[in-house]
Amino acid sequence: MTLQVPKGLLQDGEKVRRRARADDNGAWSPWAGLAVDLEQGATADKTSNGPRGIAPAPAAALADDDSRVQECWRNEQRARTSAQDGTDGYYMNRNTWCAIHQLVRGDAQINSRPGILVNGIIADATILGTAGGNGEDTPTKNRFSRFKISLKNVTAFGGVYSRQAPIAFGAGTYNTACKIDGDSYVQGPWQQWRDGKVVEFSVVSDEANGGGIDKVERCFPKFYAKIWLDGISTTPPKTYWSDARPEVRCDSAIYLTSHYGSGCIFDKVAAVYETTETRPGVPWSGMGDPDNVNMAYRSVASHIWTAQHKKELTLPKRADKSIPGHWLGASGPLSRNVNARWKIKNNEKSRNMCRLLFKDYDRKDAELGKGPKHKVYECDEFPFQSTMQGTWVSVEHLNSPDAYAYSIRPVWWKRNTEDGRRLGAFYGSRRILGEDGTRRKTTYDHFWVEAHVPGQNPH
Fold first, then answer.
1. Cβ-Cβ contacts under 8 Å for 34 (sequence gap 6 or more)
2. Which end of the chain is more exposed for a tag (fewer CB within 10 A), N or C?
3. Residue 259 class from Cβ within 10 Å (0-12 exposed, 13-18 middle, 19+ buried)?
């Protein structure tokens, strides 16, 4: 099959999608992707992009096929809000943001039905932003956030707009040294956008412009759309600027780059670490067979749940104990501690208290225990030893009276290891910045913890 494309319509390296059907009433074939190659002498069976030697990536999926776009539209009311409403779009989580805008261009009926388009075009634009780490063993210099724009509900009215109305999108930044990486302007006939054309803009933050030892910088991208009638000079383009402008924070913190690379995040979103109990038993009771360590009481999730909902049953005991970390509690959120010495001090204090308060803490078993020492339990503490609210940092480091605003419990070492890995993944994927009291004194991130135990009241 041969298709003639007007000169200048496609750009080298542009990713497009195609599908076909036998006649006007036939079923469409599945979408297939291709990359435009305008290199001199290119042949039909070429499979790489010339000297770059990179196989063409599949074209972007239709907006309706993207689960994140679907979630954005499920939260349409929030996604359509703007800076004028005191918001700037819909933050799904610290890795995803979106906004929805309506584009309208054309001539309105002025007699019997004022405000009704008789010749024009209307569409809904979805801006989807993603951010995260660049990945392990990647260069740290540039940190990226990416924004895709797609259209849905695209409808053209009247002959002239149906024939020759292009739509374009552009991106820029404001109040920042961050830049748009690559093309900052993309256009195409309205039919391409209707059929699934997606444009992506990358915002790059150079770590050299970041502040402090973690090289923190904030980026403020902005977006606009244009609609016009090609070749009709008396109809100037109509430009729509997005009021919903996301805020992106980028960093190159060394305790994150080692496994997650440098990267960016939408830090306006409240970070929540969630863990779920999957073992049988009551979260606050250790009754039962002493060899049955694979029970709820010996797991971290149940310990956290007890600390948040039944503080009176936790150790050390205190009548008016208030433990931070739960979003419905009165003691506030947690913040990350990246001072290695402080974390050791938290651990030492917790272990000493576990040994004093739990007679089975030092239990050993050849099959259930860990390593050559066969120790069955490790001392779990909540708030975590990796927080500024840990047992030692919250008291001795601050020279404050010990209010016992924490809980300790021996848990099976396997469960402690598992939850420790999950917590580490949370810190890394959500790019939770920490403080160490010396070079890092700013608290960039607060976070909450939510433990789920099936069958128990969550709040």
1. 15, 16, 17, 18, 56, 59
2. N
3. middle
Q: Which amino acid is at 183?
A: D
Q: H/E element holding 223?
A: strand 221-227
Q: Answer for the pair 336, 446: CB distance below 8 angstroms, yes or no.
A: no
Residue 35 confidence (pLDDT): 53
Phi, psi angle pair for 41, to nearest 5° = 80, 10
Instruction: List residues bridging with 173 in a β-sheet.
Output: 221
Neighbours of 323 (CB within 10 A): 21
* Residue type, position 177, single letter: A
Q: Measure the CA–CA gap between 352 and 392, rounded to whole angstroms.
A: 12
pLDDT digits (tens, 9 = 90+) for 247-268: 999 999 999 999 999 999 999 9
Which class for 253: exposed (0-12), middle (13-18), buried (19 or more C-beta within 10 A)?
buried
Packing angle of the helix pair 413-429, 300-309 (nearest 10 deg) = 80
| Run of H or E residues at 74 | helix 67-74
Structural contact between residues 170 and 302, judged by C-beta atoms closer than 8 angstroms: no
Contact call for residues 50 and 38 (beta carbons, < 8 A): no
d(CA 230, CA 166): 7
Per-residue pLDDT at 38: 47
Name residue, tokens 């000079």: 233
Residues 6+ apart with CB under 8 A from 294: 279, 412
Contact assessment for residue 393 and residue 406, using Cβ atoms and an 8 Å cutoff: no
Supply the pLDDT for residue 45. Answer: 33
Give the Cβ contact number of residue 403 at 10 Å.
14
Taking the C-alpha atoms of residue 188 and residue 180, their distance in angstroms, rounded to an integer, is 20
Element spanning 70, H or E: helix 67-74
- Is residue 235 classed as helix, strand or coil in its secondary structure? coil
Q: What is the pLDDT of residue 49?
A: 29
**458 vs 423: CA distance, rounded Å:** 20
Whether omega for the bond prior to residue 290 falls within 30 degrees of 0, making it cis, is: no
For the chain, which residues score pLDDT lower than 70?
Answer: 1-64, 82-86, 109-115, 288-290, 458-459
From 96, 102, 156, 93, select the one nearest 126 (Cα to Cα): 102
pTM for the full predicted model: 0.81
How far apart CA 374 and CA 367 sit, in angstroms, is 8
